Amino acid sequence: MAQVKVLLIEDNQDLSRNIGEYIESQGAVVDFAHTGELGVQLALEQFYDCVVLDVMLPKMDGLAVCKLLRTEANRHIPIIMLTARDTLDDKLSGFSLGVDDYLTKPFALEELWVRCNALARRHLLNSEHTLRLGEGDKALSLNNQTQHIERAGSPLTLQPIPFKILRLLMEHHPRALSRSELCDRIWGDEPTDSDALRSHIYQLRKAIDKPFPSPIIKTIHGIGFALDIEG
Q1: Host domain of residue 180
Q2: CA 145 to CA 167: how far, in whole Å?
Q3: How large a percentage of the chain has pLDDT more than 70?
């Protein structure tokens, strides 16, 4: 299973370092943002299993960040809010904007990690079992549980890695995924041959595109890969 990937949006450098070191010691991958603006940019451009978000940020505070992510993101990103504000009204304000969990300062690093990991896993379990995109010749469906795939009603067979690539492309459609992002989501920190992704993309195209008149696996030069499917 790929590592849990966390985005930490916190302007306190010491606290940020302490949280990051502890979460990384638990085997997770952590990216850091010290402003709300950078946090929004990273969260929308990259894939994260969980965002740990401080309320008190300069210029754009955590509530504004959460509101933007809920408006702009093409998927639900689990968010844990860190705050010194512990009144019910403060928490209700956050929940009304889409915060998934709250942790008030001061807190134990162990508790933050347990909540973060649980939220990431729960979101994965609650995801739709079947992903569906497109119509007609480009109608594509993928069942996460049974790993059954169909294009235009015809069942297809994929090996595990091409299956993961297709699932990631469907989950993030219409956004393109970079080569580095795909490698990170599939292999994590495990070393892999530089041509491995290219080989698996070839196998995916062979199964998904070759039997059909219109290809749907699209290479976007300088960026990565996306699905050429409307809707």
Answers
A1: 130-227
A2: 12
A3: 90
